[in-house]
């Protein structure tokens, strides 16, 4: 009984670490809402650019 309890405690304590490690390689997606003030979203290059002036 003590062995089962110890194994369950170890498994539960490792779960957050495994979840964190799996998500650490993902980078946030850049979108139009993440452009800095004065920049616009360019769908062709999928980046924020300075608007062209005429």
Short note summarizing the structure:
The chain is α+β, with helices and mostly antiparallel strands and 54 residues long. The protein is built from 1 helix and 2 strands.
Protein architecture, described:
- With 54 residues, the chain is of the alpha+beta class.
- Helices cover 41% and strands 11% of the residues.
- The chain has one helix and two strands; from the N terminus they run H-E-E.
- A two-stranded antiparallel ribbon has the order 1-2.
- The protein starts with a helix and ends in a 5-residue tail after the last strand.
- The mean pLDDT is 78.
**Shape descriptor:** rod-shaped
Order of helices and strands: HEE
Radius of gyration: 23 Å
Classify the helix fraction into a percent range: 40-55%
- Number of H- or I-type helical stretches: 1
Low-confidence regions: none
How is the main sheet built?
2 strands, antiparallel
| Secondary structural class | alpha+beta
Question: What is the strand content?
Answer: 5-15%
Labels describing this entry:
two-stranded antiparallel sheet
Layout of strands and helices, then pairs:
Elements: H1 2-23, E1 40-42, E2 47-49
Antiparallel strand pairs: 1-2
